[in-house]
Amino acid sequence: MAPPPLLALRGARAGFGGEPLFSDVDATVGRGERICLVGRNGGGKSTLLKAFAGLIDLEAGERFQQPGSVVAYLPQETAFKPDETVAEHVMSGGAEGHRAAALMDRLDLDPERKAVGLSGGESRRVALARVLASDPDILLLDEPTNHLDLPTIEWLEDELLLRFKGGFLTISHDRSFLTRLTKATLWLDRGMLHRHEEGYASFESWSDQILADEEQERNRVEQHLKAEARYLHRGVTARRRRNQRRLRKLDSLRKARAALVRTDKKAALTAANAPESGRVLIDAVGISKSFGDQVIISDFSTRVLRGDRIGIIGRNGAGKTTLLRMLTGELEPDTGTIKFGARLELMHSDQRRAVLDPNKSLWDTLCPEGGDSLIVQGRQRHVVAYLKDFLFDESQARSPVSTLSGGERNRLALAMNLAKPCNLMVLDEPTNDLDLDTLDLLEDMLSEYDGTLLLVSHDRDFLDRLVSGVIAVEGNGDVGEYVGGYEDYRKQRPSPNEKPRPAAVRKPNEISARPKSTRLSYREKTDLELLPNRIATLTAQIKDLETRLADPVFVQRDRSAFEAAAAELESVQSEIEAAEERWLELELKREALAS
């Protein structure tokens, strides 16, 4: 049973005079509840959170807060007063002095430093210290992990999970954060709020079922349009079959990386590709870098080959950007050598991604030389079709950039950068400020990209889905190299008191879980041989059914046959998903046994 509500909205509606962002919303937050608020970018999540905080006037309905309870709100961006110190800002939230001092110490904040001019990560730590120091009964958190490094994110997770006794409602694009912490889900979808008494880990299957139920109630004539709507609402889950191919590809890349890492110390989107580079793109041997007495990189060696996808992680200020600048030739090492492969063509997107002219239209931004098309992946694309790949509507093509929301500007910046031809893509914190829809787009594009990727990120789920290897910049010159994603790094890295291992690389047959048996059974062998043909047959069936259902005359001519075909399509789609998952499981087992 849910605890008594300390905070509630009843019949709430808000829309700032236009079409309501949400209406008839009834929602509560009780003591000890851990709830995530999810939904499409621009759908009203932040507005709903502000309504809970009492920061906006509702057009209808009411807000209730238990008398005597304390509610603390963390906005996406923190505004500081001129000449305000860190300590003054932290204490302004009603904090108790000792608790505030302890939090500032834990978050490595200088109390006497001026708050104006802090970096994004420092500002976020100050804002977190302020809301936590007030010891609230309810926390309202809007993107709390933005600009934080991985150690601070993990500290925040432990703080909320193990020490914080109140309830919280959070918006976040960090899937790992939501999966670990939340026990209930609020989904704001097309102005309606749905509640699920399980955390984010089950959101995809739950929302999938809601949308499937809706589809059964609607006329099935517009199958294609509804499939597109499912894609927009569910993101990556609606592309499960593509995910199977991605998983196979990533597993193969990680195995190749394991064999090659040195042991001496360590929406149909595609990025434009330059001509194929040489086999070895970057060969770094014994490189070191210091600034004054501070050692950033000490005696590190690595080799980046064509097709590698390398994630670079570490604390803010540990030296990730310094290492990246050396590996791309922008900065010379103090000692050691770096050699670069032939025909290397680099695209570097920093944390700002791109400078957009607010007065230019989206069309002119992508086609600055005029015309109505651009070259992407070696082929000509109409600018409107390319914009649709990034979830823009055709009506927005001639609109100025100034009319875009923050999430839409991020998508346009990605569209600009990802159209540039390159065989080495360097992305510095590409997930900052991205909503989940745009994250799905970026993951799709990078999964299909067949060039080489160097990626700096604090997003653990993003790293686990994409990279074949991790370079960890641990501080004080210590840099280690690991095979796999972030979770693989966590399992392999030495404990703080343990001497770092020189290679920290697993053997290829350790990339996947070791099978208990030493060979495939007769049934498994048979399935492995027959499933590809079965999948091909099912794919052809799906194409034929979709073609028939797309004919508007079909339903008018024979409604019962139309409904039967629609039901058959759902059945075949479920069958092919099961077949592909079974094939993937057997193929990974076969490869592990063979190695």
Keywords, separated by commas or semicolons:
595 residues, alpha/beta, Rossmann fold, Helix Hairpins, six-stranded mixed β-sheet, 19 helices
Strand fraction equals 15-25%
How are the strands of the largest sheet arranged? 5-6-7-3-8-9
The name of the CATH architecture of the largest domain is 3-Layer(aba) Sandwich
Which parts are unreliable, with pLDDT below 50 for 5 consecutive residues or more? 220-239, 262-270, 497-517
Please, what is the CATH homologous superfamily of the largest domain?
P-loop containing nucleotide triphosphate hydrolases
Strand runs, count: 20
If you consult CATH, what is the topology of the largest domain?
Rossmann fold
Derived structural class: alpha/beta
Would you state the CATH class of the largest domain? Alpha Beta
Distance between the termini: 50 Å
CA gyration radius, whole angstroms: 26 Å
- Percent helix, as a range, is 40-55%
Spatial shape? globular
What is the count of DSSP helices, taking H or I runs of 4+ residues? 19
